[in-house]
Amino acid sequence: MTTFKRSVSEEDLTRLERERQEAAERYNAALTALDAARQALPEFPHPPPPPDETQVTPLNTRWEILKAQPAFPRGWRGKIAAFVWELIEPVLAAQQAFNSVLVDHVNRNITTDREIPKSLASTMALLRQQVEQLVHFQLLLLGHLQLLTPFLDTKDYQVAGLARRLDEDAQEEIERLHQITRGLAGGLSGVSDEMLKRWESLLARDQRYTGRIDEIRASLAVAQQQVAALKREFDRLCQGFDESAVALANGERLGTAPGPRAASPPVATAPVANSGQPPVGTAAHTSSWKYVGFEDLFRGTRDDIRARQEGYVPLFAGASDVLDIGCGRGEFLDLLTGAGISARGLDLNHEMVEVCRARGLDVAEGDALSYLQAQPDESLGGLIAAQVVEHLEPAYLLRFFEEAHRTLRSGSTIVIETINVACWLAFFESYIRDITHVRPLHSDTLKYLVTASGFADAEVQFKSPVDAANRLQPVPRVIRQGGDEMMAALADSIDGNVERLNRMMFTHLDYAVIARRP
Fold first, then answer.
1. Rg of the chain on CA atoms, in Å
2. What is the pLDDT of residue 70?
3. Which CATH architecture group holds 282-516?
4. Could you tell me which residues are beta bridge partners of residue 324?
5. Which of 162, 183, 294, 397 could bond 392 through an S-S bridge, CB–CB 3.0 to 4.6 Å?
C-alpha cells in the first residue's frame, strides 16, 4: 500500500515562521507607538471655596443709623443741639440710604454666590467623568489590539489543524478507494464488501463528530461537506464498477481499451494565487468542499446573499449573455434568471459548480482569465464579479480587466464588488478571516484600475452599512440638556471625535465599482 504523507516541507515551515515573525514585529511596533500616544488623565483644579458670610448678619442689623428726631432740652443748650442736628441730619440720612442699598445688594447676591461653587464643582466632576471615560476607552481599545494577535493566532492554529486533519482523512479515504479500484480483477463482490465497510467507517466518523461540544459544531458543517464530496466520488467509482461488470457480462477482457467517448472540453488552470479556491483536478475536487463550508459558515445564507445583490439586477436590464465570475452557490444567477436575463456562471471551485449544476444553472468550471481569453470579442452583454478581485494578484487582475474590456459589448455594464478594507470592522471581521484573500483593494485603487483599463462612467457604490449598534455612540442627550455652556462644548468635542472614528472605522462592509464599456 502506498505510504501516505501528512506534512509540509521543512522549507515551507521555515518560510512561514519567518513571515510570521516579521509581521509580529511590525504589529508590535505599531502597538508600541499607539501605547506611547495614549492620553493620560490630567490634574483637575479644585473648585473655589464658598463665599465669606461672616459680615452678612451684622450688616443686616446695623445698617440703620438714623433714628427719630431726638427731643432737645429748653434753653440755650437745646438751641445748640437743634442747630447741630440740622447740620448732621442730611449726612446721616445719606449714609443710611447708602447702607440700605449696600445691604440689599449683598442680600440679593448671597444666594447666587452660594450656588457658584456648587455648580463649578458639579461641572468639574462631570468633566472629569467624561475624560476618565475617554481614557478608559483608549485603554480598552489598546487592550483589544493587544489581544488581537493571540486571538487570531489561536483561531488560525485551530482552523489549520482541523482543516489539515480533515483533508488528510479525506485523502486517506480516497487512497483506500483507489486501492479498492485496483483490486477489481480479484472479484467485484469482495470490492463491494470493502467499499461498504469504508462507507460505514465514514458514517461512523460523522456520527462521532455529532457528539462534540458547541465549539466544534462549526467543524461538523465542514465535515458534512467532505462527506458529500466523497459520496460524489464514490458514485463516480460505482459507475465505473457497473461499466466493468457490463463488460465482463459481455465477455470482454478487463483492461481492454474502451471505445471512443465524447471528449470533455479542456479547462485551463488558474495561475498560483489567482483565487482562494482549489484548482481543477481530482485531488482538488475532493478538497473543494472546504470553501463551500466556509461560505455557508461565514458569508451567509443564500437568502442573505440574494438580498445583498438584488440591487445589481436593474443594472443588467435588457442585457443578455451576462457572465457571473465567481458565482459561488449561484445566488445572483437565480436573480438574473428570475428577471428574464440570460446568464451563465463561472467558478474555480468544483463543489460550487456541482451545487449550481444540481439546481439546473449554467455554470462552467475554470479560472476567470483563461475563460475570458477563450471568448470571442464583444460576446458578453454584462459581467459581474462579486467578492473575487481580493483573491487575485495585481498582474493577473490587470489582465483580467483587459480581457473583460475586449469581450464585453459596447455599452455593457461591469460590476466589481469587494470588501471595503478602509472600514476597520470589515477588514478585521471579513478580510483577514478568509485565508484565500491575496491583496486588499482600496475603493480609489479599484476605480482607477477599472478606468485605466478603458471603462467609462466608473462610480463607487458602498454596500452593507455597519449596524448603528456596532458604531461608537455620541454623548447622551441628558448631559446636553443641563444648559451648561462648558459641558455643551465638551460634548461637541467628544461627538466630533466619535463621528471621525465612525467615518474611518465603522462605515460600510463592502463596495462595488460600476462602469460600462464605451
1. 41
2. 75
3. 3-Layer(aba) Sandwich (3.40)
4. 345, 384
5. 397
**pLDDT value at position 237?**
59
The three grid cell numbers given for residue 515, joined into one nine-digit string: 462602469
The Cα–Cα gap between 351 and 172 comes to: 19
Report d(CA 440, CA 426) in Å as an integer: 11
What string of DSSP letters covers 130-148?
A: HHHHHHHHHHHHHHHHHHH
DSSP structure class, residue 256: P
C-alpha cell at 35: 501605547
Question: What was the pLDDT predicted at 209?
Answer: 52
**What DSSP element (H or E) covers 34?**
helix 10-36
> What pLDDT, on the 0 to 100 scale, is given for residue 58?
85
Alpha-carbon gap, residue 208 to 227, rounded angstroms:
14
Closest by Cα among 42, 40, 92 to 63: 92
Report pLDDT for 413.
Answer: 97
* Cβ neighbours around 256 below 10 Å, total: 8
Sequence spans of domains, the chain: 56-142, 183-249, 282-516
With a CB cutoff of 8 Å and minimum separation 6, the contacts of 383 are 322, 323, 325, 404, 407, 408, 412, 413, 414, 415
Predicted pLDDT of residue 449: 94
DSSP letter for 390, please. G
Model confidence, pTM: 0.46
Which amino acid appears at position 27 of this protein?
Y
Q: What is the C-alpha to C-alpha distance for residues 142 and 30, in angstroms, rounded to an integer? A: 11
Alpha carbon of residue 61 to chain centroid: 75
Residue 510 near residue 463 (C-beta atoms within 8 A)? yes
Is residue 237 within 8 Å of 184, Cβ to Cβ? no
Smallest CA-to-CA distance from 513 within 442, 464, 465 is with 442
Residue 508: per-residue pLDDT: 86
**Within 10 Å of residue 508's Cβ, how many Cβ atoms?**
18
Amino acid symbol at 383: L
Q: In DSSP terms, which residues pair with 211 in a beta bridge? A: none
- The stretches in the chain having pLDDT less than 50 are 1, 184-189, 191, 211, 213-215, 246, 249, 252-289
CA-to-CA dists, residue 452 to 204, 325, 386, 416, angstroms: 56, 21, 20, 15
Cβ-based neighbours of 376, under 8 Å, separated by 6 or more: 407
Question: If residue 375 lies in a helix (H) or strand (E), which one and from where to where?
Answer: none
What are the C-alpha distances in Å from 158 to residues 7, 181, 488? 16, 34, 49
- Phi first, then psi: give them for residue 140, nearest 5 degrees: -65, -40
The secondary structure of 394-456, three-state, reads: HHHHHHHHHHHHHHEEEEEEEEEEEECCCCHHHHHHHHCCCCCCCCCCCHHHHHHHHHHCCCE
